[in-house]
Design a protein that fits this description.
The protein has 406 residues and is of the alpha/beta class. The chain contains 13 helices and 14 strands.
Length: 406
């Protein structure tokens, strides 16, 4: 475990060539988010060139990006020498709309009166909470008004509901992936430990007994055969990740889909936003909502603030999500790097998953939060099976802290 305070432009140069197994990071998106200076631009090509240098051949880079500036991120990653392998899409249901109310602004310019429709208590409560400065910046007091101009109901932006993740790989040094894995331990992705668990025992048994291969959603075995036997450990991981709320919304839209038996029994009234009107999620011989095909990390209100007296970082990622991504591209016990560590979610996740970790953070305030959150994870190990903390004796904690150089 190594935490480094400083700018990635300089600190990456202190790391050895080919010393890192993977990079999983949530860097600036170049959106000037909440007026933060560190978010003025996406990382430079120079930084990604340093990332390429420190990665082992075949090592993966997973980098979150903004929906408006993803293209800039991806181009810089590619121009630095990486191979773009895929794009992972993290879809969430709790995004905050940042649309400007054009009708309200027009009425203000023209001096028009607006009809008051009352107070939205949920908005008023949210805007009063500590840390929710975004609502205050938008001038939202909770009052709902309506105007009569032709521009009423017009805005400037959609509700954010996804963040793309650049999935790139350093070129192999060997002629094949198999040879590269044997030489460096990198080059592949951990399919088996990233499978999407079945929702229930019945779900697994129904899926198993139908013998239907569903490659359109990446569900089942590698072979691609139409009737390959499903893998008992779970469904094949997809390049879409849903948060819990997004998964719930998707299931509400599709309802329970079940077509055990003949494909002719498809209910055409049950479609999905992913199917563009085609009942694609009904072809797979099991039942349940459509979210069962995708990983849905569980988030916790405590996750953000464990070990600290208030985490002020504005863009904290769930630990479960970061661990899923780290585990996907990092050899067991390998070293993962985050050159934009922020408040330490990636370090917390690496610790939980038994990976070594190198984190770089420029802002001292965030570094202190990251240290405290990671230390809490070390002192209070998390049991993924029971979703609870494990009590550790004092002498064991001291040995662990010594090992991690805390």
């Amino acid at each position: 475990m190594k935490l480094i305070l400083g700018d990635s432009v300089d600190k990456l140069k202190e790391l050895d060539d080919n010393s890192i197994d993977s990079i999983v990071t949530d860097p600036p998106y170049g959106l000037s988010f909440m007026g933060k200076k560190w978010d003025y631009d996406v990382p430079s090509q120079e930084i990604f060139e340093e990332c390429l240098r420190v990665l082992k051949p075949g090592g993966y880079l997973l980098s979150f990006a903004g929906s408006r500036t993803y293209h800039r991120m991806a181009v810089r990653v590619e121009d630095a020498g990486f191979e773009i392998r895929d794009q992972i899409m993290w879809i969430y249901g709790s995004g905050f709309p940042k649309s400007h109310n054009i009708g309200k602004s027009v009425d203000k310019l023209l001096g028009n009166e607006r009809e008051s429709l009352g107070i939205d208590k949920s908005k008023a409560r949210k805007n009063g909470r500590e840390g929710n400065s975004m609502g205050k910046q938008q001038g939202q007091t909770g009052e709902i008004t309506k105007g009569q101009s032709q521009y009423e109901g017009w805005g400037t932006a959609l509700k954010p509901a996804h963040e793309p993740i650049v999935m790139a790989r350093k070129p192999l040094s060997e002629k094949t992936v198999a040879k590269n894995v044997l030489e460096h331990g990198t080059g592949g992705i951990n399919i088996e430990e990233s499978r999407i668990p079945y929702k229930s025992k019945d779900d697994m048994e129904i899926r198993k007994n139908t013998h239907r291969e569903t490659n359109k959603l990446g569900d089942g075995n590698f072979g691609g055969g139409k009737y390959s036997q499903p893998v008992e450990s779970g469904r094949f991981p997809a390049n879409i990740i849903l948060d819990k709320e997004a998964g719930k919304l998707l299931d509400e839209q599709t309802g329970e889909l079940s077509t055990v038996g003949s494909p002719k029994k498809i209910d055409n009234s049950k479609t999905s936003i992913f199917g563009a009107g085609v009942p694609g999620f009904q072809m797979y011989g099991d039942k349940g909502g459509a979210s069962r095909f995708f990983y849905c990390p569980k988030t916790s209100k405590r996750d953000r603030n464990e070990g600290v007296d208030g985490n002020v970082h504005p863009t904290v990622k769930p630990t479960d999500l970061m661990l899923y991504l780290i585990r996907l591209v990092t050899p067991k016990g390998g070293t993962t790097l985050d050159p934009f560590m922020g408040s330490g979610s990636s370090g917390k996740a690496a610790t939980r998953g038994g990976f070594d970790f190198v984190g770089i953070e420029r802002e001292k305030e965030y570094m202190e939060i990251a240290e405290a959150r990671i230390q809490y994870e070390i002192d209070n190990p998390y049991n993924e099976e029971t979703k609870t903390r494990i009590t550790v004796k004092k002498e064991v904690k001291e040995k662990v802290n010594k090992f991690f150089n805390f």
